[in-house]
Amino acid sequence: MDRQIYYPKERIVAVQSDFILRVYNWMGLGLATTAVVSLFTASSPAMISMIFGSPVVFFGLIVGELGLVIALSAAINRLRASTAVMMFFLYSAINGLTLAAIFLAYTRASISTTFFITAGTFGAMSLYGHATRKDLTSWSSFLTMGLIGVVLASLVNIFFQSEAIYWVITYAGIIVFVGLTAYDAQQIKVMALQGFGDEEAARKGAVIGALRLYLDFINLFLMLLRLFGRRE
């Protein structure tokens, strides 16, 4: 008969706190990598010409981003923690290359303003996700359907170019990513205990947690930029 091990509450809280700190550290470093690469690319005419002057290069980078996210999420249990970290930062850097486009479309002042609005919204929803006693698991199906709807509507609108659909996608996207921020923040507390006592598993879990929050932040930022961004 298996013996179940019970850990003191203080030990569980300490493990969760350490894990959450790791997740947000990785996420912050990922965002910093994206920002640095994006600013460097936007300030280099040669990089701009190479990436945005060639559809093959641009869409190749997009496919590479999607491939990295899918591979990292699907194969995390088979990867070494160091490999997962490398893939996360590679994704952050490639995302910085493609996001340089926002510096060509919007003023830097409005980008900065939107970033701080995003950071405040993200921080508030993260705190809610960590602090609330309500189980947000029930949000999962609603948010997943909303996310799929936003993606599909965005693809359809590439062909229709409808301003009405554009704004519906924008507001729906903001709601979805605000909700996902709170949901993923709460799930991180659960993930912390899944790697309890296994340092390698904890490191890999922290990378996946950072990737989820990174994606929430970036997508929320892009949706809010549609509202608050001022065109060049």
TrEMBL record:
Instruction: One GO cellular component term, please give it.
Output: plasma membrane
Which named protein is this?
Membrane protein
Q: Record keywords: Nucleotide-binding included? A: no
Its membrane topology: Multi-pass membrane protein
Task: Kindly state which keywords UniProt assigns to this record, in alphabetical order.
Answer: Membrane, Transmembrane, Transmembrane helix
Q: What is its main location?
A: membrane
| Superkingdom of this protein's organism | Bacteria
> Which Pfam families has this protein been placed in?
Bax1-I
Matching InterPro entries, A to Z?
Bax_inhibitor_1-related (IPR006214)
Membrane spanning stretches: 21-40, 46-72, 84-105, 111-129, 141-160, 166-185
Where does the UniProt annotation locate this protein?
A: Membrane
Give the record's family classification.
Answer: Belongs to the BI1 family.
